[in-house]
Amino acid sequence: MSVPHEALDFERPGFFRQLLLRDWAYMALVLAVAVTAYSLYGHMMDRYDTGGLILAAGMSAWLGWFWRPWQLFSVIVAVLSLFGVWLYGDDLARGDSVFWLNYIGSGQAGVMWMSVMVYLSTAAYLVGLFSTSDFPYRVGSAFAWVAAGAGLMALMVRWREIYLHDPSWGYIPVANLYEVFVLMVAMIALMYLYYEQRTGQRGMGAFVMLVVAASTTFLLWYMFDRDAHMVEPLVPALNSWWMKIHVPTNFVGYGGFAIAAMLGVAYLVRHRMERTRPDSRVLARIPSKDALDGVMYKAIAIGFAFFTIATVLGAMWAAEAWGGYWSWDPKETWALIVWLTYAAWLHMRFTKGWRGPGMAWWTIIGLFVTTFAFLGVNMFLSGLHSYGEL
Amino acid sequence: MADSHQSTGNSGGQGSASSTSSRGQNRTPRRSRIIVEFLGSMNLAITLLVALAIASVIGTVLVQNEPYTEYLIQFGPFWHEIFAGMGLYQVYSASWFLLVVTFLVVSTAFCVYRQTPGILKDLRRYNLQVKEKSLRSFPASSTGDLGQSQEDFLAHARRVLKAQGFRAREKTRDGETVVAAMKGRWNRLGYMLTHVGIVVICVGALLDGQFLLKVNEWMGNVEIETRSIPESQVPEISRVPVSNPSFRGSVEIPEGASANVVFLPVREGYLVQDLPFRVELEEFRIQRFSTGAEQSYESDLVIHDPERDEPLRATISVNDPLIYDGYAIYQSSFADGGTRVEMEAIPLGPGALRGVDFPGRIFDEMDIPAPGGEELTIEFIDFSVVNTQALLNEEGEEENVFLGPRVDFRLVDRTGAGLYYRNYQNPIPQEGAKYFLSGVRESPAEEFSYLFIPADADDSLDRFRTYLTMLHDDEVRMAVAQQAARGSEEMMGGEEGRQAIARTVSMLMQTFAEGGYPAVDAEIEQRIPEGQREQLGGLLFQVLNSGLQGLYMEVLEEEGVVAITEEEQRWLEDAVSAINALNFYGSPYFFRLDDFDHREASGLQIAKAPGESTVYTGSVMLIIGIFLMFYVSYQRLWIVARPNEDGSGTHVVMAGTSNRHRVEFEKRFAHLERWIIEQKNVGDDDSPDSATNKND
Ligand code: HEM
């Protein structure tokens, strides 16, 4: 019955041996793009820009190795973004005259497509929850991919649009609430897709996409009611290299917390249904409590880790812009509160071994705390961070 | 004891049989022991975390560091006393808050102190004493009877463990071999790094926390200053020597001037911090966007340090500070640096053409005799050159308009009451015409209401001044009134009636000049009986308007204008509205900004934070620690092998635990079981996910 030892596959292949040809191809592509970009524009880049390019290329290559679906996704997003930028040329007005830009590929149109796709995805996942086939889930997942792609493409193209508005205004589009909401929607969708793909638990989508849809609704309201998508120049304090890494890092954190909270909701729903309607068909469509709990922990872990980094980066930026790494500004203070909330959650789990509905509730309350730190502070409290005002 | 520490890491619920938490040991408690237990206990830690969070919330909901009078108004004397007593207006420097933080640091430190020996032992001890029975009760556990000899099996198991990254120890007694293996020990180091990192951060922050200053204040060595007096007059007790290790203060330096102190805001007052060098501002510059918003601003500084042979020159800008000798100098704001202005006080009455020129300077004040004989004081508050605002253009669209220089001042009368004004130097286009704008408000908290004085064809105030002068001149008015009344003889019954009309017109014009339409209304109300008011009143307004129009014709004639255009007609309407509004304007003069010599001041923040690098070091430890804790899973595995009962093979029991990712660990354990006990390939059959695909 036993095969010879030599034939068993327990010998761990080295990291590089695990890579397929396509992984190397992707790596080569990323490298080629980065080198091309540098040779074309290197003369306009300072050392921070160069560092940023290396960081972005490195992260993209690593993400592609770590999670293969990222490869195709990032290539498509990049091609569409470049296409949009190319169509614009030097003339912002082409946004109204060129069909592709007007209806699909401009920053604004991309955001609209993202929104539509988010709603469709949410609807498909909800249908999936009540049906017996997995087909709606797969449709929801496809829409979520498109939504994330459209959102990222929109940000990329908007980046160019800002420079076309007025070259002296130029900034990376993570500086106002509109832009970060687009980023957040794309980020949550992508993080979710990662967990879905890794765990094979598509039943989480109906819950997670709800929070994405809610964010999208806020975004649309903000856009139509407040003209939030208009490009305005940056206040001097925001014109910093730190912003470029601080803000996206923060949103990995927010994304993790949002996903965890929605899994908390799923957990509570499942917990209740197990007692009240144990033979419901829907129950079978929701992942097991164990599986939910596992992903919830992972989402909080990644969220907490990135939120910690973001807070430290924020402190470093504050040290440079405001003259002190910590000023007890409301936004900073709320970041601390969020951080403490999840630190306590982690301790409860790991030192007291808490599981179950209590911890699920905690993640939901945590999302409210996070939301307040993200939006409420801008709305209700004044401070140095007042640029993101509603 | 080691087990108890190891257990804290085991995710609850699993592996509990082998590693029940044993925090409540049967040990004779010693007092120091109890204190350590208490300080390092999770309950205390969580309580402190929650307390810190709540206190932080208070500090953001209640706006911090406002003037005490604001709080008094907001909360009333009773609550104000209580809130002030609890330090809620400066939560983050309140003693109880610092106490909570201190306790958290102490608690975390004790936690590390208490856990460290356990962790170290844990890393060294493989626990070869496990019993087969307890292994069977692990959630991840498996048994098998193999045909192999014990040696062959062990050799195989060792190879698998090694290939899978485990370190193993083994022991054989009475023919039974126990293999104990572990991997992911960095995870435990992660715990240390995380928690030591927090302690380090807090210690660094404490270094920067103006702790010494607080102690000195308690001891009465330092007293805060609450008056706004020149720096040179601040008494010694409110000055902080250079030796103060950490502070963060600000100072405004006008161009060409220098400073060797910064002001530290403390509660409702401030302290003056001495610097070991002098900072001079050579020049201050602002770059602006086309919208007029600031793009960036920068200062050319010169540091004069007695320790240096030569002064140091440096330019700082927002987000780009100068670090000099442990002092960080930041560009934080800008302000006026005492611009000199040439003003003209134009009387808004009879003498409108006879203005008085006088010089002024921002932040200075000066006395001005008012027409009525009493004294007024003008306090210059602010000045700025570039002002841009979105205004409506002719098509009614918003457009960024460059408004030009403006001066802000306050006019105070004898009683100390006064209004705030904002006057623009240049006429500002608004819907196709141009106006001299003067804003007025009662307090800085309000919005300005603007007086719009129409500019004439030369963009000057001259026509308005002439018109106003003539309006207040009895003779001119009478002459105009006569003109207006011409032709009314028939209707009014001859010359007598005509004169009466002319007098009425003149009187109405005077009334209007002095009090605007409200005064005219009052006049009408007083003179005309109720019943006729409606009919006659309307007539009188018509008459007044024709008088004002007639006066305007005079003015235009003097200017040499013959035919009235639409613009000129509009000018009259605007001028009449402006004269009407003078009534609410509250100043007997229009203070015109004639000229200025701009001088800016740069707002600098100067900080000394010796703890900063400590805080960053702690942060890096924290981040690395967190990643180790989250992403390196600490796994232990035990294998017990002994010959079968009948001696034909080997009986194997295998069990494992991990402190993370239960689901994944169960999968991993299944793989290990397949390799070690079943001795089959994982990838071969049923199992869909290959063991090598473990990128997560
Ligand atoms: C501000 C204070 C603290 C912060 C931010 C903090 C943070 C963390 C984090 C992020 C974890 C990782 C949770 C996980 O394993 O996923 C952790 C674990 C842990 N913390 Fe803390 N901690 C703090 C204070 C304390 C204190 C005071 C104690 C002592 C009672 C403590 C004891 C522990 C223990 C025993 C673990 C589990 C370690 C393991 O088994 O892996 N912590 N802490």
From TrEMBL, chain A:
<dbReference type="GO" id="GO:0020037">
    <property type="term" value="F:heme binding"/>
</dbReference>
<dbReference type="GO" id="GO:0017004">
    <property type="term" value="P:cytochrome complex assembly"/>
</dbReference>
<keyword id="KW-0472">Membrane</keyword>
<feature type="transmembrane region" description="Helical">
    <location>
        <begin position="109"/>
        <end position="130"/>
    </location>
</feature>
<feature type="transmembrane region" description="Helical">
    <location>
        <begin position="142"/>
        <end position="159"/>
    </location>
</feature>
<feature type="transmembrane region" description="Helical">
    <location>
        <begin position="251"/>
        <end position="269"/>
    </location>
</feature>
<feature type="domain" description="Cytochrome c assembly protein">
    <location>
        <begin position="175"/>
        <end position="385"/>
    </location>
</feature>
<feature type="transmembrane region" description="Helical">
    <location>
        <begin position="295"/>
        <end position="319"/>
    </location>
</feature>
<feature type="transmembrane region" description="Helical">
    <location>
        <begin position="206"/>
        <end position="224"/>
    </location>
</feature>
<feature type="transmembrane region" description="Helical">
    <location>
        <begin position="171"/>
        <end position="194"/>
    </location>
</feature>
<dbReference type="Pfam" id="PF01578">
    <property type="entry name" value="Cytochrom_C_asm"/>
</dbReference>
<dbReference type="InterPro" id="IPR017562">
    <property type="entry name" value="Cyt_c_biogenesis_CcsA"/>
</dbReference>
<dbReference type="InterPro" id="IPR045062">
    <property type="entry name" value="Cyt_c_biogenesis_CcsA/CcmC"/>
</dbReference>
<keyword id="KW-0812">Transmembrane</keyword>
<feature type="transmembrane region" description="Helical">
    <location>
        <begin position="72"/>
        <end position="89"/>
    </location>
</feature>
<feature type="transmembrane region" description="Helical">
    <location>
        <begin position="331"/>
        <end position="348"/>
    </location>
</feature>
<protein>
    <submittedName>
        <fullName>C-type cytochrome biogenesis protein CcsB</fullName>
    </submittedName>
</protein>
<keyword id="KW-0201">Cytochrome c-type biogenesis</keyword>
<dbReference type="InterPro" id="IPR002541">
    <property type="entry name" value="Cyt_c_assembly"/>
</dbReference>
<feature type="transmembrane region" description="Helical">
    <location>
        <begin position="360"/>
        <end position="381"/>
    </location>
</feature>
<dbReference type="GO" id="GO:0005886">
    <property type="term" value="C:plasma membrane"/>
</dbReference>
<feature type="transmembrane region" description="Helical">
    <location>
        <begin position="24"/>
        <end position="44"/>
    </location>
</feature>
Automatic annotation (TrEMBL), chain B:
<dbReference type="InterPro" id="IPR007816">
    <property type="entry name" value="ResB-like_domain"/>
</dbReference>
<protein>
    <submittedName>
        <fullName>Cytochrome C biogenesis protein ResB</fullName>
    </submittedName>
</protein>
<keyword id="KW-0201">Cytochrome c-type biogenesis</keyword>
<feature type="domain" description="ResB-like">
    <location>
        <begin position="42"/>
        <end position="669"/>
    </location>
</feature>
<feature type="compositionally biased region" description="Low complexity">
    <location>
        <begin position="16"/>
        <end position="27"/>
    </location>
</feature>
<keyword id="KW-0472">Membrane</keyword>
<feature type="transmembrane region" description="Helical">
    <location>
        <begin position="94"/>
        <end position="113"/>
    </location>
</feature>
<keyword id="KW-0812">Transmembrane</keyword>
<feature type="transmembrane region" description="Helical">
    <location>
        <begin position="34"/>
        <end position="62"/>
    </location>
</feature>
<dbReference type="GO" id="GO:0017004">
    <property type="term" value="P:cytochrome complex assembly"/>
</dbReference>
<feature type="region of interest" description="Disordered">
    <location>
        <begin position="1"/>
        <end position="28"/>
    </location>
</feature>
<dbReference type="Pfam" id="PF05140">
    <property type="entry name" value="ResB"/>
</dbReference>
<keyword id="KW-1133">Transmembrane helix</keyword>
<feature type="transmembrane region" description="Helical">
    <location>
        <begin position="615"/>
        <end position="634"/>
    </location>
</feature>
<dbReference type="InterPro" id="IPR023494">
    <property type="entry name" value="Cyt_c_bgen_Ccs1/CcsB/ResB"/>
</dbReference>
<feature type="transmembrane region" description="Helical">
    <location>
        <begin position="189"/>
        <end position="207"/>
    </location>
</feature>
<dbReference type="GO" id="GO:0016020">
    <property type="term" value="C:membrane"/>
</dbReference>
